[in-house]
Design goal:
This protein is an alpha+beta fold. The strands form three sheets. Strands 6, 7, 8 and 9 form a four-stranded antiparallel beta sheet that branches. Strands 3-2-5 form a three-stranded antiparallel beta sheet. It has a two-stranded antiparallel ribbon with strand order 1-4. Helix content is 59%, strand content 16%. Strand 2 (30-36) and strand 3 form a beta hairpin. The chain is rod-shaped, with a radius of gyration of 63 Å. It contains ten helices and nine strands. Helix 6 (169-253) runs antiparallel to helix 9. The longest helix has 85 residues, at 169-253. The relative contact order is 0.07. It has helices at 2-22, 97-102, 107-123, 128-133, 135-150, 169-253, 257-271, 286-294, 318-352, 358-369; strands at residues 23-26, 30-36, 39-44, 47-50, 56-63, 66-70, 74-77, 83-94, 155-166.
């Protein structure tokens, strides 16, 4: 009885072990390589798989996901004999588990060595400046070489990236000095450009200010000349009206010899006025004037001795006065029009900043050149 139990227990253990050897579970994105008596038999996909126990053996479990491998920095000599340290990152994926298992012993180490040799070959044909600025070109060439070389290993290289390119410390110092000098140069250029623009704007402002001042002085002279002209015109009109009034009064009063002699004597003291008048000459007619004042026996030539009565009033005529006023008004209106045209031309030339027009100059010259022209009578 005990012997039977022992045999039963041994049989159960054998069955359990056989089942364990028969059923194999492969995880997702994995592939199992099965060998029978040391020879490749099959590849197990993901999931539950059954093999022959004690005959078939799952030798390798290959990861089919995309893998990322970072290689340490490697010294590389450029074309201009400078040593730079370059570290790379490789993104690859196993596409054929059988080739990755039996075609290459260690595909990761193989990819690393192939990357280093290819990188030295590519960078060796570039100078330092080109190496630092040609990352994309290096990545493309390196990926092409690796993808072609690893195809027979059942590996596909998806992407290659250069993590860093570190030149020697002395070259770094030189590059920093060059960059600092370039920045100082650009700062000096910008400062000079700013000063140049400021000087240009200042000169332009001074130019416009001088133009505006000249235009203001010109308009002021035009207006002052026009004012003087109008004043003289009004003064001439006043004098003309005063002469007309005196002339009319003389004809209305019909003066005789006595009145003219009296007026003549009243003007005599004015001849002696002034400190500089030390000697003055008495006119020869003063005797006749005195005689005419005392007696009417003697009379001045051209003045009647007796007045026969009031003479008919000399009519200056409203038509003559109106004609004179109309002529003066026309002259003033013409002057106003010329001043308005000159001011408009000055404003137009001011907006043009320096483009002087011939019309304002002609108008201004006309306004300034005729300040004292008398009105038409």
């Amino acid at each position: 009885m005990p012997t039977a139990l022992v045999l039963f227990a041994l049989l159960a253990i054998f069955v359990i072990a056989a089942i364990a050897k028969t059923v194999r579970i492969v995880p997702q994105a994995r592939a199992g390589i099965v060998e029978r008596f040391g020879k490749y038999k099959a590849s197990l996909p993901a999931g539950l798989n059954v093999v022959v126990p004690f005959v078939d053996k799952v030798r390798y479990m290959i990861d089919l996901r995309e893998q990322v491998v970072s290689f340490p920095p490697q010294p590389v000599i450029t074309e201009d004999n400078l040593v730079v340290s370059i570290d790379t990152v490789i993104y690859f994926q196993v596409t054929d588990p059988v080739a990755a298992t039996y075609e290459i012993a260690n595909y990761i180490q193989a990819v690393e060595q192939l990357t280093m040799t290819t990188l030295r070959n590519i960078v060796g044909g570039m100078d330092l400046e080109e190496t630092l600025t040609s990352r994309d070109a290096i990545n493309s060439r390196l990926r092409g070489v690796l993808d072609e070389a690893t195809g027979k290993w059942g590996i596909r290289v998806n992407r290659v990236e250069l993590k860093g390119i570190d030149p020697p410390p002395s070259i770094k110092d030189s590059m920093e000095k060059q960059m600092r000098a370039d920045r100082d140069k650009r700062a000096a250029i910008l400062t000079a450009e700013g000063q140049r623009q400021a000087a240009i704007l200042t000169a332009e402002g001074s130019k416009q200010s001088a133009i505006l001042n000249a235009e203001g002085a010109r308009e002021s002279q035009i207006l002052r000349a026009q004012a003087d002209r109008e004043a003289k015109i009004l003064q001439a009109q006043g004098e003309g009206q005063a002469i007309q009034t005196v002339f009319q009064a003389i004809h209305d009063g019909r003066p005789d010899q006595s009145l003219l002699a009296y007026q003549y004597l009243q003007m005599m003291p004015k001849i002696a006025e002034g400190d500089a008048n030390k000697v003055w000459i008495v006119p020869s007619e003063i005797g006749k004037a005195l005689e005419g004042l005392g007696s009417t026996m003697n009379s001045l030539k051209g003045i009647p001795d007796e007045v026969e009565g009031p003479r008919t009033r000399v009519d200056m005529g409203d038509a003559a006065v109106a004609a004179s006023s109309q002529s003066a008004d026309a002259t003033l209106q013409k002057a106003h029009d010329e001043v308005a045209a000159a001011i408009a031309a000055a404003e137009e030339s001011t907006r043009g900043v320096g483009s002087a027009s011939a019309a304002p100059t002609t108008s201004a010259g006309t306004a300034e050149g005729d300040p004292g022209e008398p009105p038409a009578q």
